[in-house]
Amino acid sequence: MIGTAGEVRDFRLAADTLRCLVMDMVERAHSGHPGGPMGMADFATVLFLKHLRYNPLDPSWVDRDRLVLSAGHASAMLYALWHLAGYNIKMDDLKAFRQWGSRTPGHPEYGLTPGVETTTGPLGQGCANGVGMALAEAMLAARFNKRGFDIVDHHTYVIAGDGDMMEGLSHEAFALAGHLGLNKLIVIYDANHVTIEGPLSLAASEDTGRRFEAYGWFVQEIDGHEYAEIDTALRRARFENARPSLIIARTHIGMGSPGMRDSAACHGAPLGEEEVRAAKKELGFPPERKFHVPAEVYEIFARRNTELIQQHGMWATKVEEYRRLFTALSEEWDSYHAGDYSGVEDALEELSAAGDEATRKTSGRVLQVLAERFPNLVGGSADLGPSNNTYLKGYDAVGPHSFSGRNLHFGVREHAMAGIMNGMALHGGLRPYGGTFLVFADYMRPAIRMAAMMKLPVIYVFSHDSIFIGEDGPTHQPVEQLASLRCIPNLVVIRPADAVETVAAWRAAMMRTDGPTALILTRQVVSQIPREESSFSAEQLVSGYILWQGGGDAADIVLLASGSELAVTLDAGKRLAEDGWGVKVVSLPSWELFEDLPEERRKSLLESRRGLRLAIEAGCRQGWERFIGDRGRMLGVDTFGHSAPWRVLAEKYGFTADNIYHAARALLQTAVEGETRA
Question: Rounded distance, CA 208 to CA 248, Å?
Fold first, then answer.
């Protein structure tokens, strides 16, 4: 407990040093957000010096507490704290805040700055990430902890602001956290009641504490500048054993600034040199000195680090004994964290042969086999498990205060599902997947984008992939979603045509460890396409390959297709060959993997002697121009769908072998006529 005058003095000195560093960082960059960090400095100082468990000598310690700054605009505070705590963030890094090539960017970026657990900035994302981290901790603890050997025993802290609390994502994620009883999750709400436009009362007036109590949380409300209250609240939250905790800390934005305190003006702009000098003077710091850290502050953090390093050593000793007593579990623990999925090929070897079936059904069969081979593969669906075929049969579900299962019920919370999956992947040890209908990828897109940015190996199972969902109508028929997903850098999108390609798609998704993968699957039954399986490698089956070629040694036209349109495209190609045309039918399940191929390989798949290409896909045309070229054409869907049986829609929208045949013939005849005139 904080009580002595000396302790209070130490905390105040450290907090005021933090405020001054933040002011200097923002001022030097001529941009940034000083107000929030200045308001949260007291709370953050107590958190670091009394409660947060970390090791500056081993920042990746698997049993460290996780700290998520969901209010990512307050990044200057985080960088300054990790600098004071002894992480490899130098004073020069603080001085380079928000500059090109800096390790201290405008918002925290995972993998760039030591101590940063997740990329934050879009408000609410860190809230969902924190829930995912706490869920991963609980699931791993249920699997590996033994009496007297709690090798997984840490907390997840989330610092959130008024903006986070207004975003719908935080509502989704925190409601699920309360339902599950994630008691190792502690959310610190910086309630300064100021947003960019002015006071919070302009847009919000709900009782946040009562809302969280309704979620099933343990709620405390304190003065965020009183050190004893902060310490007591954190201590009570850490010892809460049934509920996640919310600490509502009433703070003053811009605390320490005589002219800007409680003002929206200090939220996202430098205070100005004159105000910085006035603030430093009020705090008792030399107004003329910049980036000044009293030696005593470094000593305060060094003393804390000595305690933390000792705690890490005690944990390491416990793990050594654990390995001696529980050899099999230790080996499994290592496999959970190794990220080695090289065994996926053997696991899926027998699955390629299958009859006609929806690719969502094939995906479900593949998932069952993978679950047996990789026990850290966990996931679920946004209340669509029976439709997505994402439920792992024979395994328990995770539920309130029960974390030994592998099936996750995210509820109708698509955005939270994606954000929580990110948190689980960031935590380490588990390989998460999540499923829903493709049309609802729109609800998930912000979190998908963050997964791609952070290179997280999460897997999205998107079924009901086109207008061929049928009678549910245009609200449920994705048209633009494929193009939208393909626009996200570092997201691999794979739309397999049949069982063979679906198995290969899962293999590619599991083997990919440097970014997310989206599997795009059919609702309707699709034909098993005849092919010599041995003729194509698993890589070719997802990156693009010549499925069939006929009608002569050289192709007059290339027919490109993905997913359920490949079978009818093949039928059309064979009809063209019977007419004497040279035809190449190319399957193109993944644009991203195709574009990773060597140039000569890509050229060999797309070239024809007349430069003619026809692309067929039941989605919008955007993006296909890069493959079809100047003389090509694309059969797609640039309008919303209709409510009707899927076969009727195929006929009405032209996705039949007959229509594809006639479209290709028209291209060929136009080309021949042009050659004749020339």
Answer: 9
Please state, in angstroms and rounded to a whole number, the distance separating the CA atoms of residues 408 and 380: 5
Across the 678 residues of the chain, what is the mean pLDDT of every consecutive 10-residue run?
A: 81 98 98 97 98 95 98 98 97 98 97 97 97 98 97 98 97 98 98 94 96 98 97 98 98 96 93 96 96 97 96 97 97 94 85 82 96 96 97 97 98 98 98 98 98 98 97 96 98 96 96 97 94 81 95 92 98 96 97 96 94 96 94 95 95 97 95 75
What fold, for 345-520?
Rossmann fold (3.40.50)
Cβ atoms within 10 Å of 158's Cβ, excluding its own: 33
Beta strand 517-520 pairing with 459-463:
parallel
DSSP 99-142: -TT-SS-SS--TTTSTT--S---STTHHHHHHHHHHHHHHHHHH
Collapsing DSSP to helix, strand or coil, 545 comes out as strand
Q: Which residues pair with 231 in a beta bridge?
A: none
State how far the Cα of 470 lies from the Cα of 360, in Å rounded to an integer: 15
In this structure, CATH architecture of domain 541-677: 3-Layer(aba) Sandwich (3.40)
pTM for the model stands at 0.96
Other beta carbons within 10 Å of 168: 12
Centroid of chain to Cα 475: 25
Distance CA 133, CA 428 (A): 9
Which pLDDT does position 342 carry in this prediction? 87
What is d(CA 193, CA 205) in angstroms, rounded to the nearest whole number? 10
Strand partners, 150: none
φ, ψ of residue 31 in degrees (nearest 5): -165, 160
Q: What order do you get walking across the sheet with 545-550 strand by strand?
A: 545-550, 583-587, 557-561, 612-616, 633-635
Main-chain phi, psi angles of 414, to 5 degrees? -60, -45
Long-range Cβ pairs for the range 282-289 (8 Å, 24+): 282/256, 282/257, 282/258, 283/16, 283/19, 283/20, 283/256, 284/16, 285/16, 285/17, 285/20
**Which residues are 247's β-sheet partners?**
188, 220
DSSP string for 294-323: -HHHHHHHHHHHHHHHHHHHHHHHHHHHHH
CATH number of 5-309: 3.40.50.970
5-309 and 541-677, same CATH topology = yes
Residue with tokens 């897997």: 459
Quote the Cα angle for 374-177-39, to 5°. Answer: 120
Distance between alpha carbon 649 and the CA centroid of its chain, in Å? 34
**414 among known catalytic residues:** yes
Beta bridge partners of 546: 586
Domain boundaries, the chain: 5-309, 345-520, 541-677
- Look up residue 349 and give its two tokens: 């070897």
How high is the pLDDT of residue 354? 67
The single residue of 167, 229, 275, 414 carrying the catalytic annotation is: 414
Q: Are 510 and 366 in contact (CB under 8 A)?
A: no
Rounded to whole angstroms, the Cα distance separating 471 from 475 reads: 10
Token digits for 404?
Answer: 């030994």
